[in-house]
TrEMBL record:
It comes from Luteibacter rhizovicinus DSM 16549. One of its GO terms (molecular function) is acyltransferase activity, transferring groups other than amino-acyl groups. InterPro entries: Acyl_CoA_acyltransferase, GNAT_dom, N-acetyltransferase. This is N-acetyltransferase domain-containing protein. Residues 8-166 form the N-acetyltransferase domain. It comes from the Bacteria. PANTHER family: GNAT FAMILY, PUTATIVE (AFU_ORTHOLOGUE AFUA_3G00765)-RELATED-RELATED, N-ACETYLTRANSFERASE DOMAIN-CONTAINING PROTEIN.
């Protein structure tokens, strides 16, 4: 699976992406707004990839994907759909290294992932969750056409989350 936009290449993760995942999951904003996944080294990142994205590709045909600059191949972040047992619909998730914020990459990747999921995987309704104070993520979701539907408690998160919905 590969998706290309004007600036980005979006592709499945492999275990060789573990050093990048280790860096991304230890970004202060990732820990603050998403969760501390307890990944602290390459071996932990390989386990995260095996138990998360790689397992999801096999089970659902989609998951979180690596987002890189098309021109250079530099990894910027991840974006994709997550199938949680606790939500009724696939959940759009994304995270980027802080040094790549405010360049429109999350919106560009999110739009491409949604279009691909609908065209190739027949995905209808997609939801999203954010921490209550993640204003940047909330703006991205609104730009992608998500509408707020309230606040929910999501198992595995210490605080309530804003809940958003996007219908085709």
């Amino acid at each position: 699976m590969a998706i290309e936009t004007e600036r980005l290449s979006i592709s499945e993760f492999g275990l060789d992406d573990a050093p990048f995942i280790n860096e991304l999951l230890n970004e202060p904003d990732f820990i603050r707004h998403i969760a501390d996944r307890g990944v602290r080294d390459t071996a932990g990142a390989e386990k995260y990839l095996s138990d998360g994205p790689l397992k999801s590709y096999a089970a659902h045909g989609y998951g979180l994907y690596k987002v890189a600059l098309k021109a250079s191949g530099e990894s910027l972040g991840m974006c994709g759909l997550i199938r949680r047992d606790t939500l009724d619909f696939p959940d759009l998730g994304y995270a980027f290294l802080a040094r790549h914020y405010r360049r429109g990459y999350a919106s560009e990747a999110g739009a491409a992932v949604l279009a691909h999921a609908r065209a190739q995987r027949n995905v209808g309704r997609v939801v999203a969750i954010t921490s209550l104070d993640n204003d940047g993520s909330i703006r991205v979701l609104e730009n992608l056409g998500f509408r707020p539907e309230g606040i929910i408690d999501v198992p595995g998160y210490d605080t309530p989350s804003r809940y958003f919905v996007n219908d085709p």
